[in-house]
Design brief:
The protein contains seven helices and six strands; from the N terminus they run βαβαβαβααβαβα. It has helices spanning 20-32, 57-74, 89-103, 117-123, 126-138, 147-157, 173-180; strands spanning 7-13, 37-42, 80-85, 107-112, 141-144, 164-166. Strands 2-1-3-4-5-6 form a six-stranded parallel beta sheet, with helices on both faces. Helix 2 runs parallel beside helix 3 (89-103) and helix 3 packs parallel to helix 5.
Length: 205
């Protein structure tokens, strides 16, 4: 009889196909489903979708609903709890979810999903930075997108190098298969870019 797959609680995952964090988390689930049993912490919403970064009643409602779902799954004792870490007030939200998992003595992974994280961290008040820093110190692993980010996070958060892991952003296999079949010649080509149109996204390159 084969050993059961370890259970991983992963979040947030929403029904919005354009939401980047959920897209990356779904890629983890598809790619590692043979090794782990994933339980999604759903973050679906039908109201207030254009004001997700603000302090509104709808956001508080969805936050409490998501916390209740997270706690319900923590009571089932998963092997690992994985949650995306972002900037703004979403930083405190992600720290709260990972802190709750720590209370249950569940191994935790914080996955950094924010290009502006370093600037945001430097602008935090001493209290906010201190609280978040204590949670970061207790996280078992921090996932970043590149070796450059690993150096930055290690220096900024004073984490040990063996706690930080590099996982490049995934590309959907179906998209890659189609893209590789595109006829690329000397003629002029048109490119479609989905995302923020800015220098930090490489658009000008």
């Amino acid at each position: 009889m084969s050993n059961p797959r370890p259970v991983v609680l992963i979040g947030p995952v929403s029904n919005d196909p354009a939401e980047s964090v959920s897209a990356v988390n779904r890629s983890f689930i598809r790619g590692l489903n043979g090794h782990y049993k994933f339980v999604e912490c759903r973050a679906d919403r039908s109201h207030g979708t254009t004001r997700q970064s603000r302090l509104t009643l709808w956001n508080f409602y969805y936050l409490f609903r998501q916390i209740a779902r997270w706690l319900g799954q923590l009571l089932r004792r998963p092997a690992i709890a994985h949650y995306a870490v972002s900037s703004g007030w979403a930083l405190e939200k992600s720290m709260a979810f990972l802190w709750l998992a720590n209370l249950f003595r569940i191994r935790t992974i914080g996955h950094l999903h924010s290009g502006g994280f370093i600037d945001h961290w430097k602008e935090l008040s001493g209290l906010r930075r201190g609280l978040a820093g204590r949670v970061f110190g207790r996280i078992d692993a921090v996932v970043v997108l590149s070796e450059g980010w690993k150096r930055l996070i290690r220096h900024t958060l004073h984490l040990s190098e063996d706690k930080i892991f590099v996982v490049n952003n995934p590309i959907d296999q179906e998209f890659e298969d189609v893209a590789l079949r595109w006829p690329l010649g000397r003629s002029r080509n048109n490119f479609l870019s989905l995302g923020v149109m800015g220098r930090d996204k490489g658009v000008l390159d």
